[in-house]
Structure formats: C-alpha cells, structure tokens
C-alpha cells in the first residue's frame, strides 16, 4: 500500500514537472524552494487523521496563486476527503445559477428585457402611488392592482420607499399574498429601512423572521449600522435591542453586525461586540470569528489571526477559517508557511474539500498549465468529491483558450451525462465563451446540440 501511494504521488509530481516548474521561474522576491516538501507531504499522507469535512456556501474572496505545486499536490493526495451530498447540494444551488443562453438570433424570446423592465417600472410606479396616499384601505387597493408579486418587485419598491411605516405595511401585505415568500434581499432591505429610522422596537420583531432565512453572507444585514462604529451611544442602543432577542437569534444578530464592521475594516467595533457577547450568555463560536480572521489576513496581521486559532483550539474545527489563512499565505508568496499550514489543517482534522481542490486547480491552471489542472481534477473525481460548478467553468475556459474549441468540447462531452443541471450549466458556459470570442458558428452548433439532447428542456 505504501508503495502504491508513493507511485501515485510520483506520477502527479511528474505531471507538474513536465510543465517545467523550476526554481529559476520564481520571482526574486520569492523564498527559496523548500527542500523537504516531498518528505513533509508524504508524512502528512501517511499520518493524516479522519475527515471533519464541512461544506460552506462561501467562495474565498481572494485568489490563490501558489507556485509550490509539488507540495500542494502531495497534500491533496493525502487528504482523502469524501463529499457530503446534502451539504454540497445546498452549495450547488448557490453556485450554479448562471443564466441560460441568450445569443441573438439563436433563441426564441418570450419577452424582451426592455418589455420586462417596462412592466416592472410600471408596477413600481403604481404601487408607489398607493403607498404615498397611505390610506387605511391601502392593502385592499394594493390587492386590486392585480400585479404578480415577486421578491424582485418587493425589493425594488422598498428601495425607493422613503416612509418606514409605508415600507413595513407593504412588506407585511406582500407576505400575506398567496404563493409569495420573502427572501434574504427583501428582509435585509426592511431591516435597513427600520435601522436607519432607529425603529429598534419594530426591528426586534422582524429579526426572528429574518433569522429563519438561511444566508452565509451576514455583512449586508446591518449595513445601516456601519456608520455607528465609533458612536458608543448608538452601538449600546443596538446591543440593548439584541439582548432582548431569543438566544439563537441574538447570536446571529451579533455575528452579522461583527461581519458588517469587519467588512468595513472597523475591527475595534467588532472586538467590542465580541466582548459584549461573552457577558450576555452568548459565547462566540468558531464561525463567529470568520470575518475577523479574514480582515486580519487582508491587513497582513497574521499574528492576530493565529491568536484566534489559539483561542478556539478546543472548538470544532472550521475548514473555512483555515482556508482563509492558507489563501492569504499563498497570495503573499509565503509557500513554506502555506505548506506548514496545510499540514496543521490535516493534523487538526480539517481535510481539504471541494473548495480547496478548486483553489489548487486554479493555481495549477495559472502557474503550471492546463495539464496540471486536469491532473488535479482527475484526482478530485477519483476521491469521490463532487467538483464545484466553478471548477468546470475554469477548466472549460482554459481548454478553450489554450487547446481550442475542439478540446473544450471534448471535455464537455466527457463530463456530461450524470447531472442534468450540470450538463445545462456546462453547455451554457461554453456557448457564452464561444459567443464572446466571436466563434458564433460554434456557439450556434452547441446550442443546437444542447436542444437535440433535451438538455435544459425542463428548466
């Protein structure tokens, strides 16, 4: 077994070696090529712990540009992660919402964008006329207008409504309409309106409803409070409102405001909230620290980020936090430190997942070429991990750019047939790549092929 593992490692290293990744290609600012990467990675491979794989619907905001391909490939080889289909399906719903093909002259149009915009603008205008009157029978009048209520329409109306009272009444009326359900954007817009008007009493009633809507990006929920980062009185008012909430909603509220402050680089205000959480029976969890770890890495305060990991070493491991640090190290060309960090991830039980593979494939694509990226992609598939839709798109892009349409099309055909939604996504993506590159004939042929196969017909 040990010989077989070494053989696999050697084969992947040879794939990268054929792309001529040599020391002299490093920039003068890069550190010396670490001499013990192979032995270090092999030890990790042999001694890696069991997986604590966790999928999160978040893509790292920074790009990974590691040139230390041999080390990362070996550690990827060691981390034999398995996919969690339930969690992956949640991410995939976020990751695959690319628009359908829209090539002029190739698709039948039911309704032009201009007509849709006109209908939306007309609905907004008529609804605003009702809201401005503010009559007692406003809700009945809104119903009589007969417009189809969608989250997009509700969000557009709220965006242009100046009266908090009218906004709240319209929001509540829309909520009562048959078949309609508010989404993240409509809830967050109402929270923003109530927060800016300092109507904390009503906001306290709305937040529990907002808490039931799943969202991984918390930084937009309390954007209204970003300007209060240095206003102790206003922050205290907000925290008083938080403290009246039920425990789970209270924790989420604190976490969202921490994310808001970190997004705006108001670290001191975020730390003040963390301090407050501990005093109101709302102890921070590992995910609470994600925004802080991210902002520390962005500010090159790696020692501060390390302090957080030390504080949370007894908590369940959070692979996203580890990936943020790994990403930051590689972006700064600190490849030796990045390799050590990968080893610490495995030692702590955080095995590399589909996101890490995606990052590594991007690195291979940019630094050693498409063959190295395809080697990693093949390894990912052999491990039984479902690739991200984004991974398919970057490989299609690079194949089209380097090898031409024929190779990109061959890759698409090879990957099709297992997931109808993925098939539709890949065809749509390659059609758009062809169209943007002026290859209209190939785009037309692809669209005909897609329709002939019935791909996307039920979408």
Task: Give a verbal description of the structure.
The protein is an all-alpha fold and 459 residues long. It is 63% helix and 0% strand. Helix 1 runs antiparallel to helix 3 (69-78), helix 18 runs antiparallel to helix 19 (370-382) and helix 18 (354-367) packs parallel to helix 20 (389-402). It is flat, with a radius of gyration of 26 Å.
List the helices and strands and how they pair.
Elements lengths: L1 H16 L19 H11 L21 H10 L6 H11 L17 H21 L4 H8 L5 H9 L4 H12 L8 H13 L3 H12 L20 H12 L3 H17 L3 H11 L12 H9 L3 H10 L7 H13 L3 H13 L6 H14 L2 H13 L6 H14 L2 H11 L4 H17 L3 H13 L7
Query: What is the terminal separation in angstroms?
Result: 46 Å
Silhouette: flat
Radius of gyration: 26 Å
Q: Provide the succession of SSEs.
A: HHHHHHHHHHHHHHHHHHHHHHH
* Count of helix runs: 23
Total number of β-strand segments? 0
Major pleated sheet: none
Q: Helix proportion of residues, in percent?
A: 55-70%
- Indicate the proportion of strand residues: under 5%
Q: Which structural class fits the helix and strand makeup?
A: mainly alpha
Low-confidence runs (pLDDT<50, min 5 residues)? 4-109
